[in-house]
Amino acid sequence: MTRIQFRETHYEILSVPPNISLAPAPLKKAYHRALLIHHPDKLGSQPPNPKPRFTIDQITAAYTTLSTPHLRQEYERQLAASTSTIIGGVDEGKVLQSVDLDDFYYDEERERWTRACRCGAGEGFVITEEDLAADADGKGK
Question: Is pTM, for the whole model, over 0.70?
Answer without folding.
Answer: no
